[in-house]
Amino acid sequence: MDFKLTEEQIQIRDEIRRFAETEIAPDAAGRDEQEKFAEKQIKKLGELGYMGMTVSSQYGGQSADTVAYTLVVEELSKVDASVGVALSVNNSLVCYGLEKFGTETQKQKYLVPLATGKALGAYCLSEPGTGSDAGNMMTVAEKRGDHYIISGAKNFITNGIHADYLIVFVTLDKKAGTKGVCAFIVERNFPGVSVGKKEKKLGIRSSDTAMLNFDGVKVPAANLLGQEGKGFSIAMAILDVGRIGIAAQALGIAGGALAAAVKYAKERRQFGQSIIDFQAINFMLADMAMEIDAARLLIYQAAVAKDSGEKFSVQSAKAKLYASRVAVDCAVKAVQIFGGAGYLKDYPVERYMRDAKITEIYEGTSEIQKLVIARGLMT
After folding, report:
1. In this structure, are 246 and 331 located in the same domain?
2. 232-263: b or e for each residue (b if 16 or more CB lie within 10 Å)?
3. Which element (helix H / strand E) includes 149?
């Protein structure tokens, strides 16, 4: 399989790389320290068409392919993984879900503003009592005439504070298990929707992560996404795409760590020479470079499979599992190469190390990815 980038993909990569270096990198450390959402940068990304870049042009998107999308997430995450995940969630967990499963009316009302950067979306699946056991949710919906009443809470919601539109998964019948799950499009300004605790996190501190409460929220029946009882399968199908985005985020973190480590190793001198000349250092850098290239190939494989209309659940699981492992490994190696300086906030590698860990957890833990891969071997 040929993974040579097209001229269009290279152009997108180079454009977003310049944007990341000029618009995001300068205050990335400050926003991390202040736990400040990159509102200005997200707005600009929307104006440039990147917040819904994979959406069809008829709904305001760029109709970009998934490889181009991964390049964007990677380049953003090289300088700030918080911005990378905000864009990833809007593209893959929200816009993709609406375009794939929404009605024409829903697409015109919600997808168009999301794809054109006029609105921001969030994906609400996790709950305080459920994580990997997503089918055992406690947020409930009750149908009353031409609307539903939703009550419950969702936690660890990326973009939770600034999102305008939410894709919320609830159960209509607890006894039915996953077959009782439904998906709804909920507007943040619906009465009964409120933001709870904003989480204080180890990493991606510039990304909003919050609890959302739903207290008897009246949602029109027209906002049901897909069919009743099909919500769980919709959630899993959306996550397959989301995992490609998180894999790209992890790849960006790893790439940022490698670039910083190479630069520092060339400049730092010990025993009369640059430390990059020591085998102990350059072997670590060699391992990082190899792991990054291997992760990139897995990501491209998953992206091409998706765009080709093939099944890609296993490929996306492999990409996320390996890329997240690489992100953690490369970030730790970068800190080691920096030595004591790597433990200081004066340099970005301590942030890369903090940011890397979450990629092994959200949108399906590494253990869940192994389960998906193993089940693929059984079929």
Report:
1. yes
2. bbbbbbbbbbbbbbbbbbbbbbbbbbbebbbe
3. strand 147-158
Tokens describing residue 50:
């990147």
**Would you give the distance in Å from CA 371 to the centre of its chain?**
20
DSSP state letter for 169: E
Q: How far is CA 117 from the centre of its chain?
A: 17
State the alpha helices, DSSP H only, in 108-153.
112-115
pLDDT digits over 145-191, tens only?
Answer: 999 999 999 999 999 999 999 999 999 999 999 999 999 999 999 99
For residues 269 and 316, give the distance between their C-alpha atoms in angstroms, rounded to a whole number.
41
| CATH number, domain with residue 326 | 1.20.140.10
Q: What sign for the dihedral angle of Cα 27, 115, 49, 43? A: negative
Q: What is the DSSP letter of 49?
A: T
**Which is the catalytic residue, given 74, 291, 360, 363?**
363
Rounded to whole angstroms, the Cα distance separating 285 from 61 reads 38
Q: Is 268 in the same domain as 356?
A: yes
Within 8 A by CB and 6+ apart from 95, the residues are: 51, 52, 54, 55, 61, 111, 114, 115, 121
pLDDT tens for 242-284 read: 999 999 999 999 999 999 999 999 999 999 999 999 999 999 9
Helices 81-88 and 39-47, packing angle to 10 deg: 50
* Residue with token string 């999301």: 114
User: Percent of the chain at pLDDT above 90?
Assistant: 96
Active-site annotation holds for 363? yes
Q: Please name the residues in contact with 247: beta carbons below 8 A apart, sequence gap of 6 or more.
A: 70, 295, 298, 299, 302, 316, 319, 320, 322, 323, 324, 359
Total number of domains in the chain: 3
Helix ranges (H only) for 231-379 are 231-267, 279-307, 313-338, 349-356, 366-378
- Collapsing DSSP states into helix, strand and coil, what is residue 162? coil
> Are 266 and 368 in the same domain?
yes
Alpha-carbon distance of 244 to 336, in angstroms, equals 28
Name which of 291, 305, 282 is nearest 376 in CA terms: 305
Of 184, 210, 229, the residue that ends a domain is: 229
The span from the CA of 72 to the CA of 87, in Å, is 9
Please state the pTM of the whole predicted model: 0.97
> Cα–Cα distance between 241 and 89 in angstroms, integer?
10
